[in-house]
Amino acid sequence: xxxxxxxxxxxxxxxxxxxxxxxxxxxxxxxxxxxxxxxxxxxxxxxxxxxxxxxxxxxxxxxxxxxxxxxxxxxxxxxxxxxxxxxxxxxxxxxxxxxxxxxxxxxxxxxxxxxxxxxxxxxxxxxxxxxxxxxxxxxxxxxxxxxxxxxxxxxxxxxxxxxxxxxxxxxxxxxxxxxxxxxxxxxxxxxxxxxxxxxxxxxxxxxxxxxxxxxxxxxxxxxxxxxxxxxxxxxxxxxxxxxxxxxxxxxxxxxxxxxxxxxxxxxxxxxxxxxxxxxxxxxxxxxxxxxxxxxxxxxxxxxxxxxxxxxxxxxxxxxxxxxxxxxxxxxxxxxxxxxxxxxxxxxxxxxxxxxxxxxxxxxxxxxxxxxxxxxxxxxxxxx
Amino acid sequence: xxxxxxxxxxxxxxxxxxxxxxxxxxxxxxxxxxxxxxxxxxxxxxxxxxxxxxxxxxxxxxxxxxxxxxxxxxxxxxxxxxxxxxxxxxxxxxxxxxxxxxxxxxxxxxxxxxxxxxxxxxxxxxxxxxxxxxxxxxxxxxxxxxxxxxxxxxxxxxxxxxxxxxxxxxxxxxxxxxxxxxxxxxxxxxxxxxxxxxxxxxxxxxxxxxxxxxxxxxxxxxxxxxxxxxxxxxxxxxxxxxxxxxxxxxxxxxxxxxxxxxxxxxxxxxxxxxxxxxxxxxxxxxxxxxxxxxxxxxxxxxxxxxxxxxxxxxxxxxxxxxxxxx
Lengths: 383, 326
Known about the structure:
The complex is a heterodimer.
Chain A: H1 2-34, E1 40-48, H2 55-75, E2 78-86, H3 91-102, E3 107-111, H4 116-129, E4 133-135, E5 150-152, H5 157-172, E6 176-182, H6 186-202, E7 205-212, H7 220-229, E8 233-237, H8 240-253, E9 259-261, H9 269-274, E10 281-285, H10 294-307, H11 313-332, H12 337-345, E11 350-352, E12 355-359, E13 365-366, E14 370-375, E15 378-381
Parallel strand pairs in A: 1-2, 1-3, 3-4, 4-5, 6-7, 6-8, 8-9, 9-10
Antiparallel strand pairs in A: 10-14, 11-12, 12-13, 14-15
Helix pairs in contact in A: 2-11, 3-4, 5-6, 7-8, 11-12
Chain B: H1 2-5, H2 8-32, H3 40-57, H4 62-81, H5 89-109, H6 111-114, E1 120-121, H7 126-136, H8 148-175, H9 178-188, H10 190-195, H11 200-226, E2 228-229, H12 236-249, H13 254-270, H14 278-292, H15 300-309, H16 311-325
C-alpha cells in the first residue's frame, strides 16, 4: 500500500512538473504577443553534444550561442529564446531531440546538431517538416545538399584544405607528398577525400598513403615508412589530439617537412601537446583568435569573462550562427519557418567575427579562409 | 482533431523502444541457453548494411532487404557459432566481442562498398515509403486530420508493434516447447543435458543463430528508420548497451528483457530536463541495480508474484499448461 502511495506521489509530482513546463511555454507566448514594439520574438531549438566523450565541443557551441543570444536580445530588435537539447553524440538521440523540438510549433528554426553523422539523420527530417536547420560544426561533404531547408555556417573541409595546400605547395615547391589519415572517423575521412582530390588536381606524386585509428598512440610504423620515401610535404587529416602526437613523433624521428592539416587539426591544443614539434603545421580556418579585428577581440574578452576560458573555433562559429539567424529573422519580419528559410537563403556579406559571410545556392558557406601556420610555438597568419 | 494528440516525438521514441526490445530479446535468446554473446552489435551491423546496400543499389523493396539482412546475419551466426561452441562464459563473450570489432573494422575498410567511416546515407525510410504507397493508393493523411510526419511515424510505430508482438509471442511459445526446455537444460548443466540425450551442438548453435537473426533483423529496421548508418553505430558501445537491456531488466525471463529495453530507452529521454546530468543518473541507476539486484529487476520470483496478482488472466494459461502435462 505504502509503495502504491509513493508511486502515485512520484506520478503526481511528475505531472505537476509537466504542467509547470506547459505553463512556462504559455506565458512566454502571451508576453510575446503583447510586445508590439517592433520586436520579433522567436524560439530557436538547439541540438548539441552535451554529454559523452565529445561534450567539450557541445559545451563550446552552446556557450557561443548563449553569448550571442544575450547580445542580440540586449539590442532589442529580435528577442530569441533558446531551447537546448542534448544529443549525446548519437544519431537516435539527435533524431528524438529534433522531433521533440520540431513538434513545438513555436520553434522556428533549429541549430545543430554537432556531428555530421547526426546531421545526416536530422537534416532530411527537418527538411521534410519544413523547418530551417543550420549546422555550426558540420563540415562533411553533402550536408547542405540534403534539402533546401538545410544550411551550415561551418566552413567545409572541401573549401579549407585546398587553400592551405595550395599555399604550402607554392612556398616549398612541393613535388612529392605523403598522406596520413584516420580512417574510422567521418571527419578525418572526408578531409582525406578532399586532400586526395586536390593532390590529383595539382598533379603531385603520392609516395604513400597511411592510415591510423582513433585513439592510437604509436605512429612509428607509419612514420618510418613515410620517412624512407622522403616526401616534400605531409598531408595529415587528423583531429588535434592524434595529429599533435603524430607531429611530435615525426619530429623526434627526424622528419622535418611541413604538415598540412584539416580543420580538426586547428586547435591551440596542438601546441600544448606537441610543443616545439608543432612548428611547420599549416591549416586553413575562418577563425583566428589573434586577428586585429575589434569585433574578434571583444568577443574573446566577453567569452573569457563569462566562461573563464578562451573560445575556440566552435564557439566562434556558433556565435556567428545565431547572428545569422537573427539577421534572417529581421529580414523575414516575422517568426515563421518558411519566411525565415527564404530570408536565410538570401543572406549576403554579413559581417561576423569569422569574416564576411554568404550562403551559396545550396545553403553552403561562401567565405575566404585564412591560412595559419605554427611558428615559434604560436599560430600566425601565413602570407 | 486526431493530429493534435499525436506527437511525432513520442512516436519516434516508441519506435526506438520497439527496435531495442528486439535487440534485447536477441541477447535474451542466447543467454537462455547459457551463452553470453557480445556479438549482437556485429550482427546488427551485418543486417543493417546488407539491407541498406540491397535497397540502395538494387532498388529492392525494403521488405526484401530486411529479410535478406536477417538471413545474412543468421548465416554469419552459424559460421561464428559453430567454432565458438567450444568456448563458454567469459571466453565466448570475448570471442564474440572480437567478432563485433572485426565487423566494424570491416565496414570501415571496405570503402568501395560501405563508403567507410563516412557512412551510408539516403537509405529508403520505411515510413516515407509507406506514405508514398498510401498516397499512390489515393489516401491523404490530412483527410483524417494528420500531418505527413505524424502519419509516417504512426505507421512505423504500428508496423514495429505488430512485429514485436509476433516476436514476443514466438519466443514465449518457444520457451514452453521442446526447444525452450532444451535451452533451459543446457543453461542449468551442459553435461547433464547431454546425458539426458539433448543434442547440445544443435541447440547451442540454434540459440546463437536465433540471436544473430534477431539482431540482424533489428539492425535492418534500424537502418530503415534512421535512413543513415555508419560503422560507429555498431561499435562495442552498442554491444554493451544491448547487454545492459537484458541484464538490467532481468535475463531469466523474456519480460525482463522487454522491460530493460523500454526503461533504458525512456530514461535518458525522460531526464532531458536535467540535460548534462542525465547520463550520471543513468550510471548511478546501473550501479545501484548491480549492488542490490544483480539478477535484474524482473526475475522468476517477481513473475510468480505477478501471476498471483493477475489470477484471472494467467489462470487460463495455467490450465492449458496442466493439460499438456497430462
